[in-house]
Structures are given as structure tokens and as C-alpha cells.
Amino acid sequence: QQPVQSPQAVILREGEDAVINCSSSKALYSVHWYRQKHGEAPVFLMILLKGGEQKGHDKISASFNEKKQQSSLYLTASQLSYSGTYFCGTEYSGGGADGLTFGKGTHLIIQP
Amino acid sequence: KAGVTQTPRYLIKTRGQQVTLSCSPISGHRSVSWYQQTPGQGLQFLFEYFSETQRNKGNFPGRFSGRQFSNSRSEMNVSTLELGDSALYLCASSAGQGKGLGYTFGSGTRLTVV
Q: What gap in Å lies between CA A48 and CA A32, rounded to an integer?
């Protein structure tokens, strides 16, 4: 069961902020965030592990609420280079490793 | 440090044929995963290999198979191609096995089945 991402798409002006959410109905071990530009490979942004944490670098940060099984990606003072499709990939708690289960993605368009 | 290399970048095959895609992970990475990306279904996990052993398999038919060599390079094979197999096939490598590790993706192989 794939995680649910919201919103599906967002259009911003350069300098505005954005929040992308990722919710799971299953207990999560970790949440991965990737950005993919058209025709390119998904690029790893960050990973958050269960236990609830926040991470960030530059103006992109994320949080993981273990109680709600939810993660949010925050893009502050967006730049044109932030445009792309953002995916959350989840690993579930429990035995074994099942690979990443990805959400359907959030299309982010930054306009000058 | 070279990234994940996938070959070929583009492929056109006819329905019923088979195809083999190749992936070379980042040097030192021993885990290789494969994903299928389509507009309708998004990114879906195919399988994961570590030290030449398949550790996990996603929900795909047996026509999809893979293997990993002793140098960590991996291949995936799709037999009896169907039109619905047209997709971007992505390979991702990771330093080790287990959860909580980041993955580096290759640029993918765009497969078109006609």
C-alpha cells in the first residue's frame, strides 16, 4: 500500500515556501525523499528514521512524525532549481526489507 | 566517484521479445535495486540484490527476473514482452543491506515495446 502524497501539484513564485506531505497507513521504519527532474534520475535528498526526527540542509528540510506515520518536506525561499517532482519513499517496520514504496509524487513548478 | 550507470539508455523492442538491461552500481556499493516507473503506476519496486542473492522481490510476474554478479553489477531480464512493459527502468545502489540506507539512482533505461 503506497504512501499518499499531497498536494499532487503546486505552483510557486521564486522565494515562496512549500510543504509536501507523505502519509502512510502502515508503521514506518524510514522515509526517503527524492527529487526528479524531467528525463533525469531521482536524486536523493534525505532520509528520516523512525523515532521521529528532523533533518535539513540549505533551505530544504523534513520532519517525521512517527505517531502519525507522516513526513513533511519543507522548501523555504524556493529557487528555480527546486522545480521537479518530489517523491517520498517509505520502508515499513517489521522483519525483512521490502524495498522502497513510493508515493505518486508531487509536481513542483517554480516560476520567476 | 562515478555514479550508477545503466545501459542502454533507450530500447525499442517488439511484443513477445525479451530484453536485458544492465546496471553498474557505485564503486563499493553491493546492493542493487530495480524499479519500474510509469506515468500511471509511478515508481514500483521490482527486486533487490545483495552479494549476488535476491533479497526481495516486488509484485511483478515471473517474466521479470534479475541477477547480480560478483562485481556487484546487475542485470534484469524481461521475457515475452508486453505493451504494458513500456516504462523507465531505474536501478539504484546502496552501500549495504538492510533498512535505513540511502539509494543512488541511475538515469534509467527507457524501454518501449511496440
A: 6
- Check CB contact under 8 Å for B100 and A100: no
Q: Find how far residue A28's CA is from the centre of its chain.
A: 14
Residue of A nearest to B39 (CA): A104
For A12, A84, B18, the CA distances from A111, given in Å and listed in that order, are 6, 12, 43
CA distance B18 to A111: 43
Identify the bridge partners of residue B82 per DSSP, sorted by sequence position.
none
Is B99 in contact with A100 (Cβ distance < 8 A)? no
CA A102 to CA B14: how far, in whole Å? 29
Q: Is the peptide bond before A42 cis (omega within 30 degrees of 0)?
A: no
The residue count for chain B = 114
Q: What phi and psi values does residue B36 have, to the nearest 5 degrees? A: -110, 130
Residues B9-63: tens digit of each pLDDT: 999 999 999 999 999 999 999 999 999 999 989 999 999 999 999 988 899 999 9
Determine contact: A57 vs chain B, CB below 8 A.
Answer: no
* Residues B78 and B66 sit within 8 Å (Cβ to Cβ): no
Residues of chain B with Cβ-Cβ distance to A94 below 8 Å are: none
- B100 confidence band (pLDDT: 50, 70, 90): confident
